[in-house]
Design brief:
There is one protein chain. Helices cover 41% and strands 19% of the residues. It is α/β, with parallel strands linked by helices and 286 residues long. Helix 2 crosses helix 10 and helix 4 packs parallel to helix 5 (157-165).
Length: 286
């Protein structure tokens, strides 16, 4: 019959789509959490975790009525305990859920609380997925307006597992202006698009270094690379974060710059990024 082949193809495609969907986990919100914001990068070493911490604190600084949590999903290289000056094992609630450790008013959960500081995490994929599931589902967050998730670098199993398991309000991509970092940032943005996670925008970290003596500015990693990338892939540019000694020193002390030097230009840069993130979320919801 005419058109029979076309109908068969459509039926086959529909069955294949159903079978593929059957293999994916159903997204289930995290109890008590209104919005999840993931902070990601295509590669390591671009300041993603420092940005995630100061973004969380920046969101609180802009509106102190908002409650913000911080989840360290970088299982192999957890940084949140150091950056937030937190140590110890989480206590358990009555229903056997982990209670986050709190500093600066931000409840935090990290794999770093569950292992020794110097212990390498040498795990295969299934164990990592089990740990991620526990961090997502077995934490007593209470009531949060925002949960900021510090993702591991790259575009692998952990990223896919998180994006497929929980509804995500949007992703923030962190990159330096350097070409090699921008290539991976583009891949990261494309990954989120493929799994239907809105990309809230790009943050250009380590954008410029200003000499503390003569105040001459040097673009060590290049200039405006992330801004140009944002324009080329059609996402918002969220702002610049300078390469500054105080950001590094305060991070190493576990005193994030937004808290330790709130009146500094560096803290203001993070608050501007937080404001841009809130604006992007509002635009998505209109």
């Amino acid at each position: 019959m005419p058109g029979q082949g076309s109908m068969d193809n459509k039926g086959l495609q529909e069955r294949q789509k159903q079978q593929m969907a059957r293999g994916l986990p159903k997204q289930k919100p995290i109890t008590g959490v209104k919005r999840v914001i993931v902070v990601a990068s295509g590669k390591g070493g671009v300041g993603k975790s420092t940005t995630a911490v100061n973004l969380a604190l920046g969101l609180m600084a802009i509106d102190q009525s908002k409650s913000v949590g911080l989840l360290d999903a970088d299982v192999y290289g957890p940084s949140i305990p150091k950056l937030m000056n937190l140590k110890g094992n989480p206590e358990l609630s009555d229903d056997n859920r982990m209670i986050p450790l709190i500093n600066y008013g931000v409840p935090c959960m990290s794999m770093g609380f569950l292992v020794e500081d110097t212990s390498p995490i040498v795990w295969r994929g299934l164990m990592v997925m089990s740990a991620i599931e526990r961090l997502l589902r077995q934490v007593e967050w209470g009531s949060l307006d925002y949960l900021v998730v510090d993702m591991p670098p790259g575009t692998g199993d952990v990223q896919l597992s998180i994006t497929q398991n929980i509804p995500i309000a949007g992703a923030v991509i962190v990159s330096t202006p350097q070409d090699v970092a921008l290539l991976d940032a583009r891949r990261g943005a494309e990954m989120f698009r493929k799994v239907n996670v809105p990309v809230l925008g790009l943050v250009q970290n380590m954008s410029v270094f200003q000499c503390p003596n003569c105040h001459h500015q040097t673009h060590i990693f290049g200039s405006n690379g992330a801004k140009q990338l944002a324009e080329s892939i059609g996402v918002k540019f969220l702002g610049d974060i300078p390469l500054h000694l105080s950001i590094r020193e305060m991070s190493d002390k576990g005193q994030p710059i937004v808290i330790s030097s709130p009146d500094s230009p560096e803290a203001e840069a993070y608050r501007k990024v937080a404001s841009a993130v809130i604006q992007s979320l509002q635009e998505l919801n209109t």
